[in-house]
Amino acid sequence: MVLFDDFEVLDVYGPLSMFGALKDRVQITTIAEKAGTITTASGLSFVADVAFADAPQLDLVIIPGGMGTRREVNNAQFLSAIRHLAEVTPQVATVCTGAAVLAKTGWLDGKRATSNKMAWKWVTAQSAKVLWVPKARWVEDGKVTSSSGVSAGMDMALFLIAKRFGKETATWVANRAEYRWYDNPADDPYAAMNGLGA
Amino acid sequence: MVLFDDFEVLDVYGPLSMFGALKDRVQITTIAEKAGTITTASGLSFVADVAFADAPQLDLVIIPGGMGTRREVNNAQFLSAIRHLAEVTPQVATVCTGAAVLAKTGWLDGKRATSNKMAWKWVTAQSAKVLWVPKARWVEDGKVTSSSGVSAGMDMALFLIAKRFGKETATWVANRAEYRWYDNPADDPYAAMNGLGA
Protein backbone atom coordinates (compact mmCIF):
# COMPACT_ATOMS: atom_id res chain seq x y z
CA MET A 1 0.00 0.00 0.00
CA VAL A 2 1.36 3.38 -1.04
CA LEU A 3 1.11 6.17 1.55
CA PHE A 4 1.67 9.95 1.31
CA ASP A 5 0.72 12.90 3.51
CA ASP A 6 -3.03 13.65 3.46
CA PHE A 7 -4.11 10.29 2.10
CA GLU A 8 -7.76 9.38 2.77
CA VAL A 9 -7.74 6.94 5.69
CA LEU A 10 -10.68 4.79 4.52
CA ASP A 11 -9.08 4.39 1.05
CA VAL A 12 -6.20 2.68 2.82
CA TYR A 13 -7.61 0.93 5.89
CA GLY A 14 -10.87 -0.24 4.26
CA PRO A 15 -8.98 -2.48 1.80
CA LEU A 16 -6.27 -3.31 4.37
CA SER A 17 -8.91 -4.47 6.86
CA MET A 18 -10.17 -6.89 4.20
CA PHE A 19 -6.69 -8.16 3.25
CA GLY A 20 -5.64 -8.11 6.92
CA ALA A 21 -8.36 -10.65 7.74
CA LEU A 22 -6.24 -13.13 5.77
CA LYS A 23 -3.09 -12.42 7.72
CA ASP A 24 -1.88 -16.03 7.46
CA ARG A 25 -1.90 -15.68 3.66
CA VAL A 26 -1.27 -11.98 3.05
CA GLN A 27 1.68 -9.82 4.07
CA ILE A 28 1.12 -6.07 4.05
CA THR A 29 3.83 -3.43 3.48
CA THR A 30 3.30 0.33 3.49
CA ILE A 31 5.50 2.28 1.08
CA ALA A 32 6.14 6.02 0.85
CA GLU A 33 8.75 8.48 -0.41
CA LYS A 34 10.51 8.11 2.94
CA ALA A 35 10.02 5.45 5.59
CA GLY A 36 8.59 6.88 8.81
CA THR A 37 5.83 9.25 9.85
CA ILE A 38 2.97 10.15 7.51
CA THR A 39 0.31 12.62 8.62
CA THR A 40 -3.18 13.64 7.48
CA ALA A 41 -4.96 16.99 7.55
CA SER A 42 -7.31 15.66 10.24
CA GLY A 43 -4.27 15.31 12.51
CA LEU A 44 -3.67 11.55 12.36
CA SER A 45 -0.21 9.97 12.25
CA PHE A 46 0.95 6.73 10.62
CA VAL A 47 4.20 4.93 9.96
CA ALA A 48 5.32 3.93 6.45
CA ASP A 49 7.42 0.75 6.56
CA VAL A 50 9.78 1.40 3.65
CA ALA A 51 10.80 4.01 1.09
CA PHE A 52 10.01 3.42 -2.60
CA ALA A 53 13.67 2.54 -3.19
CA ASP A 54 13.45 -0.25 -0.59
CA ALA A 55 10.09 -1.71 -1.64
CA PRO A 56 10.10 -5.51 -1.85
CA GLN A 57 8.76 -7.30 -4.94
CA LEU A 58 4.98 -7.11 -4.48
CA ASP A 59 2.09 -9.23 -5.77
CA LEU A 60 -0.26 -6.25 -5.67
CA VAL A 61 0.31 -2.51 -5.25
CA ILE A 62 -2.58 -0.29 -4.14
CA ILE A 63 -2.54 3.49 -4.67
CA PRO A 64 -5.03 5.32 -2.46
CA GLY A 65 -6.56 8.77 -2.94
CA GLY A 66 -7.15 11.74 -0.71
CA MET A 67 -6.42 15.47 -0.74
CA GLY A 68 -2.68 14.75 -0.88
CA THR A 69 -3.07 13.60 -4.49
CA ARG A 70 -3.53 17.31 -5.44
CA ARG A 71 0.08 17.82 -4.34
CA GLU A 72 1.53 14.51 -5.56
CA VAL A 73 0.40 14.96 -9.20
CA ASN A 74 3.01 17.76 -9.29
CA ASN A 75 5.74 15.70 -7.58
CA ALA A 76 7.87 14.28 -10.40
CA GLN A 77 9.87 11.98 -8.10
CA PHE A 78 6.71 10.51 -6.57
CA LEU A 79 5.13 9.99 -10.02
CA SER A 80 8.24 8.25 -11.31
CA ALA A 81 8.27 5.87 -8.31
CA ILE A 82 4.56 5.10 -8.81
CA ARG A 83 5.05 4.42 -12.51
CA HIS A 84 7.95 2.09 -11.74
CA LEU A 85 5.87 0.18 -9.13
CA ALA A 86 3.00 -0.14 -11.65
CA GLU A 87 5.40 -1.50 -14.26
CA VAL A 88 7.07 -4.12 -12.08
CA THR A 89 4.07 -5.33 -10.04
CA PRO A 90 1.78 -8.05 -11.46
CA GLN A 91 -1.41 -6.49 -10.04
CA VAL A 92 -2.07 -2.75 -9.68
CA ALA A 93 -5.08 -1.19 -7.95
CA THR A 94 -6.21 2.37 -7.30
CA VAL A 95 -8.78 3.67 -4.83
CA CYS A 96 -10.62 6.96 -5.35
CA THR A 97 -8.32 9.76 -6.59
CA GLY A 98 -5.37 7.34 -6.54
CA ALA A 99 -6.32 6.88 -10.21
CA ALA A 100 -5.47 10.55 -10.84
CA VAL A 101 -1.89 9.96 -9.67
CA LEU A 102 -1.50 6.87 -11.82
CA ALA A 103 -3.09 8.68 -14.79
CA LYS A 104 -0.63 11.56 -14.41
CA THR A 105 2.30 9.13 -14.82
CA GLY A 106 0.94 8.24 -18.29
CA TRP A 107 0.88 4.54 -17.39
CA LEU A 108 -2.96 4.44 -17.54
CA ASP A 109 -3.06 5.84 -21.10
CA GLY A 110 -5.17 3.65 -23.37
CA LYS A 111 -6.54 1.71 -20.39
CA ARG A 112 -10.08 1.81 -18.96
CA ALA A 113 -10.34 3.22 -15.43
CA THR A 114 -12.70 4.85 -12.95
CA SER A 115 -12.28 7.11 -9.93
CA ASN A 116 -14.14 9.26 -7.40
CA LYS A 117 -17.30 10.78 -8.91
CA MET A 118 -17.26 13.99 -6.84
CA ALA A 119 -13.71 14.77 -8.07
CA TRP A 120 -14.33 13.51 -11.61
CA LYS A 121 -13.45 16.71 -13.49
CA TRP A 122 -10.09 17.10 -11.74
CA VAL A 123 -9.21 13.40 -11.98
CA THR A 124 -9.97 13.06 -15.68
CA ALA A 125 -8.01 16.26 -16.42
CA GLN A 126 -4.83 14.41 -15.34
CA SER A 127 -4.83 12.51 -18.65
CA ALA A 128 -7.17 12.71 -21.62
CA LYS A 129 -5.71 9.45 -22.96
CA VAL A 130 -7.20 7.26 -20.21
CA LEU A 131 -10.50 5.60 -21.23
CA TRP A 132 -12.40 6.97 -18.23
CA VAL A 133 -15.52 5.01 -17.22
CA PRO A 134 -17.89 7.32 -15.30
CA LYS A 135 -20.46 4.75 -14.11
CA ALA A 136 -18.68 1.91 -12.31
CA ARG A 137 -17.99 0.83 -8.74
CA TRP A 138 -14.70 -0.52 -10.06
CA VAL A 139 -13.14 -1.27 -13.46
CA GLU A 140 -10.67 -4.05 -14.33
CA ASP A 141 -8.47 -3.66 -17.42
CA GLY A 142 -5.70 -6.20 -17.70
CA LYS A 143 -3.54 -6.03 -14.60
CA VAL A 144 -5.01 -2.76 -13.32
CA THR A 145 -8.21 -2.43 -11.27
CA SER A 146 -9.45 1.05 -10.34
CA SER A 147 -12.23 1.78 -7.89
CA SER A 148 -14.58 4.67 -7.42
CA GLY A 149 -14.56 6.94 -4.33
CA VAL A 150 -13.34 6.01 -0.84
CA SER A 151 -15.59 3.14 0.34
CA ALA A 152 -15.57 1.55 -3.16
CA GLY A 153 -12.04 0.44 -2.32
CA MET A 154 -13.51 -2.18 0.02
CA ASP A 155 -15.71 -3.65 -2.70
CA MET A 156 -12.73 -3.75 -5.06
CA ALA A 157 -10.54 -5.34 -2.38
CA LEU A 158 -13.12 -8.11 -1.95
CA PHE A 159 -13.16 -8.57 -5.75
CA LEU A 160 -9.36 -8.90 -5.76
CA ILE A 161 -9.52 -11.33 -2.82
CA ALA A 162 -12.14 -13.38 -4.72
CA LYS A 163 -9.88 -13.43 -7.81
CA ARG A 164 -6.92 -14.65 -5.79
CA PHE A 165 -8.45 -16.82 -3.07
CA GLY A 166 -11.96 -17.59 -4.35
CA LYS A 167 -15.39 -16.06 -3.81
CA GLU A 168 -16.07 -18.10 -0.68
CA THR A 169 -13.05 -16.59 1.05
CA ALA A 170 -14.07 -13.08 -0.04
CA THR A 171 -17.58 -13.63 1.31
CA TRP A 172 -16.15 -14.87 4.60
CA VAL A 173 -13.96 -11.74 4.83
CA ALA A 174 -16.97 -9.47 4.14
CA ASN A 175 -19.16 -11.26 6.71
CA ARG A 176 -16.39 -11.15 9.30
CA ALA A 177 -16.40 -7.37 8.94
CA GLU A 178 -20.23 -7.32 8.86
CA TYR A 179 -19.70 -5.54 5.55
CA ARG A 180 -22.37 -5.72 2.84
CA TRP A 181 -20.24 -6.22 -0.23
CA TYR A 182 -21.52 -4.55 -3.40
CA ASP A 183 -20.15 -7.25 -5.67
CA ASN A 184 -21.56 -5.91 -8.93
CA PRO A 185 -19.07 -3.44 -10.48
CA ALA A 186 -21.89 -1.80 -12.52
CA ASP A 187 -23.85 -0.89 -9.36
CA ASP A 188 -22.84 2.77 -8.98
CA PRO A 189 -25.43 5.32 -7.87
CA TYR A 190 -22.75 8.00 -7.43
CA ALA A 191 -22.25 8.69 -11.15
CA ALA A 192 -25.81 9.99 -11.62
CA MET A 193 -25.69 11.71 -8.21
CA ASN A 194 -22.76 13.76 -9.52
CA GLY A 195 -24.31 14.46 -12.93
CA LEU A 196 -22.28 11.86 -14.83
CA GLY A 197 -23.81 9.60 -17.49
CA ALA A 198 -23.10 5.98 -18.28
CA MET B 1 -10.22 7.48 19.56
CA VAL B 2 -8.66 4.88 21.85
CA LEU B 3 -5.86 2.75 20.33
CA PHE B 4 -4.08 -0.39 21.54
CA ASP B 5 -1.90 -3.01 19.85
CA ASP B 6 -3.87 -5.29 17.50
CA PHE B 7 -6.88 -3.01 17.15
CA GLU B 8 -9.02 -3.67 14.05
CA VAL B 9 -8.09 -0.96 11.52
CA LEU B 10 -11.57 -0.52 10.01
CA ASP B 11 -13.12 -0.12 13.50
CA VAL B 12 -10.91 2.95 13.86
CA TYR B 13 -10.45 4.45 10.40
CA GLY B 14 -14.00 3.81 9.16
CA PRO B 15 -15.48 6.15 11.80
CA LEU B 16 -12.48 8.52 11.64
CA SER B 17 -12.89 8.85 7.85
CA MET B 18 -16.48 9.99 8.48
CA PHE B 19 -15.56 12.42 11.27
CA GLY B 20 -12.43 13.51 9.37
CA ALA B 21 -14.60 14.72 6.48
CA LEU B 22 -15.71 17.47 8.88
CA LYS B 23 -12.19 18.55 9.74
CA ASP B 24 -13.20 22.22 10.09
CA ARG B 25 -15.62 21.22 12.87
CA VAL B 26 -14.06 18.09 14.40
CA GLN B 27 -10.67 17.64 16.04
CA ILE B 28 -9.42 14.07 16.35
CA THR B 29 -7.03 12.78 19.05
CA THR B 30 -5.73 9.23 19.35
CA ILE B 31 -5.20 8.00 22.91
CA ALA B 32 -3.37 4.92 24.19
CA GLU B 33 -1.60 3.64 27.29
CA LYS B 34 1.55 5.32 26.01
CA ALA B 35 1.93 7.95 23.28
CA GLY B 36 3.84 6.63 20.27
CA THR B 37 3.88 3.56 18.11
CA ILE B 38 0.98 1.12 18.01
CA THR B 39 1.17 -2.01 15.87
CA THR B 40 -1.25 -4.61 14.52
CA ALA B 41 -0.85 -8.33 13.87
CA SER B 42 -1.02 -7.68 10.13
CA GLY B 43 2.18 -5.65 10.50
CA LEU B 44 0.82 -2.10 10.31
CA SER B 45 2.17 0.76 12.44
CA PHE B 46 0.39 3.83 13.80
CA VAL B 47 1.14 6.70 16.13
CA ALA B 48 -0.97 7.43 19.23
CA ASP B 49 -1.01 11.17 20.00
CA VAL B 50 -1.27 11.06 23.80
CA ALA B 51 -1.26 8.74 26.79
CA PHE B 52 -4.49 8.25 28.78
CA ALA B 53 -3.04 10.51 31.52
CA ASP B 54 -2.61 13.35 29.01
CA ALA B 55 -5.97 13.01 27.23
CA PRO B 56 -7.73 16.34 26.71
CA GLN B 57 -11.38 16.82 27.71
CA LEU B 58 -13.27 15.10 24.86
CA ASP B 59 -16.79 15.51 23.47
CA LEU B 60 -16.87 11.88 22.35
CA VAL B 61 -14.64 8.90 23.11
CA ILE B 62 -14.69 5.89 20.76
CA ILE B 63 -13.41 2.46 21.84
CA PRO B 64 -12.63 0.16 18.90
CA GLY B 65 -12.39 -3.62 18.83
CA GLY B 66 -9.99 -6.11 17.38
CA MET B 67 -7.98 -9.11 18.57
CA GLY B 68 -6.11 -6.88 21.05
CA THR B 69 -9.27 -6.69 23.19
CA ARG B 70 -8.62 -10.33 24.22
CA ARG B 71 -5.48 -9.04 25.95
CA GLU B 72 -6.85 -5.73 27.20
CA VAL B 73 -9.79 -7.25 29.14
CA ASN B 74 -7.06 -8.61 31.46
CA ASN B 75 -5.15 -5.34 31.69
CA ALA B 76 -6.38 -3.65 34.91
CA GLN B 77 -4.61 -0.37 34.19
CA PHE B 78 -6.11 -0.13 30.70
CA LEU B 79 -9.61 -0.96 32.02
CA SER B 80 -9.34 1.66 34.71
CA ALA B 81 -8.31 4.32 32.15
CA ILE B 82 -11.22 3.32 29.87
CA ARG B 83 -13.71 3.48 32.74
CA HIS B 84 -12.44 6.93 33.72
CA LEU B 85 -12.76 8.19 30.12
CA ALA B 86 -16.32 6.81 29.92
CA GLU B 87 -17.22 8.55 33.16
CA VAL B 88 -15.86 12.00 32.29
CA THR B 89 -16.81 12.14 28.55
CA PRO B 90 -20.31 13.32 27.55
CA GLN B 91 -20.62 10.81 24.67
CA VAL B 92 -19.18 7.30 24.63
CA ALA B 93 -19.14 4.94 21.65
CA THR B 94 -17.87 1.42 21.06
CA VAL B 95 -17.20 -0.40 17.78
CA CYS B 96 -17.25 -4.20 17.52
CA THR B 97 -15.50 -5.91 20.46
CA GLY B 98 -14.72 -2.49 21.97
CA ALA B 99 -17.96 -3.15 23.88
CA ALA B 100 -16.30 -6.16 25.57
CA VAL B 101 -13.62 -3.89 27.02
CA LEU B 102 -16.15 -1.37 28.28
CA ALA B 103 -18.33 -4.20 29.66
CA LYS B 104 -15.37 -5.62 31.57
CA THR B 105 -14.91 -2.28 33.39
CA GLY B 106 -18.45 -2.70 34.79
CA TRP B 107 -19.47 0.71 33.46
CA LEU B 108 -21.92 -0.86 30.97
CA ASP B 109 -23.77 -2.78 33.69
CA GLY B 110 -27.51 -2.16 33.51
CA LYS B 111 -27.16 -0.48 30.10
CA ARG B 112 -28.29 -1.81 26.71
CA ALA B 113 -25.47 -2.56 24.27
CA THR B 114 -24.53 -4.57 21.19
CA SER B 115 -21.27 -5.86 19.71
CA ASN B 116 -19.76 -8.11 17.02
CA LYS B 117 -22.05 -11.07 16.25
CA MET B 118 -19.24 -13.53 15.37
CA ALA B 119 -17.60 -12.91 18.79
CA TRP B 120 -20.90 -12.70 20.69
CA LYS B 121 -20.26 -15.49 23.20
CA TRP B 122 -16.89 -14.09 24.28
CA VAL B 123 -18.12 -10.48 24.37
CA THR B 124 -21.22 -11.17 26.45
CA ALA B 125 -19.17 -13.30 28.89
CA GLN B 126 -17.30 -10.11 29.91
CA SER B 127 -20.34 -9.02 31.93
CA ALA B 128 -23.67 -10.72 32.53
CA LYS B 129 -25.09 -7.45 33.89
CA VAL B 130 -25.07 -5.67 30.54
CA LEU B 131 -28.45 -5.78 28.74
CA TRP B 132 -26.99 -7.27 25.56
CA VAL B 133 -29.04 -6.69 22.38
CA PRO B 134 -28.18 -9.40 19.81
CA LYS B 135 -30.03 -8.01 16.77
CA ALA B 136 -28.95 -4.40 16.17
CA ARG B 137 -26.58 -2.52 13.87
CA TRP B 138 -26.07 -0.14 16.80
CA VAL B 139 -27.75 0.57 20.16
CA GLU B 140 -28.05 3.93 21.94
CA ASP B 141 -28.61 3.98 25.70
CA GLY B 142 -28.24 7.36 27.30
CA LYS B 143 -24.77 8.69 26.58
CA VAL B 144 -23.38 5.40 25.26
CA THR B 145 -23.80 4.10 21.70
CA SER B 146 -22.43 0.66 20.82
CA SER B 147 -22.14 -0.74 17.32
CA SER B 148 -22.00 -4.24 15.92
CA GLY B 149 -18.94 -5.66 14.14
CA VAL B 150 -16.26 -3.70 12.27
CA SER B 151 -18.06 -1.91 9.41
CA ALA B 152 -21.07 -1.12 11.63
CA GLY B 153 -18.85 1.53 13.21
CA MET B 154 -19.28 3.65 10.07
CA ASP B 155 -23.08 3.51 10.28
CA MET B 156 -22.91 4.45 13.97
CA ALA B 157 -20.46 7.28 13.22
CA LEU B 158 -22.91 8.71 10.68
CA PHE B 159 -25.69 8.40 13.29
CA LEU B 160 -23.55 10.32 15.80
CA ILE B 161 -22.70 12.94 13.14
CA ALA B 162 -26.44 13.29 12.37
CA LYS B 163 -27.18 13.75 16.10
CA ARG B 164 -24.57 16.46 16.45
CA PHE B 165 -24.57 18.22 13.06
CA GLY B 166 -27.87 17.20 11.47
CA LYS B 167 -28.93 14.45 9.06
CA GLU B 168 -28.12 16.55 5.98
CA THR B 169 -24.48 16.79 7.05
CA ALA B 170 -24.31 13.04 7.78
CA THR B 171 -25.78 12.28 4.34
CA TRP B 172 -23.21 14.58 2.72
CA VAL B 173 -20.40 12.78 4.59
CA ALA B 174 -21.71 9.36 3.48
CA ASN B 175 -22.08 10.47 -0.17
CA ARG B 176 -18.60 12.03 -0.14
CA ALA B 177 -17.23 8.60 0.79
CA GLU B 178 -19.60 6.90 -1.72
CA TYR B 179 -20.73 4.94 1.33
CA ARG B 180 -24.25 3.49 1.44
CA TRP B 181 -25.26 4.29 4.99
CA TYR B 182 -27.43 1.69 6.71
CA ASP B 183 -29.29 4.28 8.78
CA ASN B 184 -31.76 1.89 10.42
CA PRO B 185 -30.23 0.49 13.64
CA ALA B 186 -32.61 -2.52 13.50
CA ASP B 187 -31.29 -3.61 10.07
CA ASP B 188 -28.86 -6.34 11.14
CA PRO B 189 -28.58 -9.51 9.04
CA TYR B 190 -25.51 -10.67 11.03
CA ALA B 191 -27.44 -11.73 14.15
CA ALA B 192 -29.33 -14.49 12.33
CA MET B 193 -26.23 -15.34 10.26
CA ASN B 194 -24.48 -16.16 13.54
CA GLY B 195 -27.41 -18.02 15.09
CA LEU B 196 -28.58 -15.19 17.33
CA GLY B 197 -32.26 -14.33 17.81
CA ALA B 198 -33.90 -10.94 18.18
From TrEMBL, chains A, B:
InterPro entries: Class_I_gatase-like, DJ-1/PfpI, INH-QAR. This is DJ-1/PfpI family protein. Residues 1-161 form the DJ-1/PfpI domain. Transmembrane segments: none annotated. CDD domains: GATase1_PfpI_2 (cd03139). The lineage of its organism: Bacteria, Pseudomonadati, Pseudomonadota, Alphaproteobacteria, Sphingomonadales. Pfam families: DJ-1_PfpI. It comes from Sphingobium amiense.
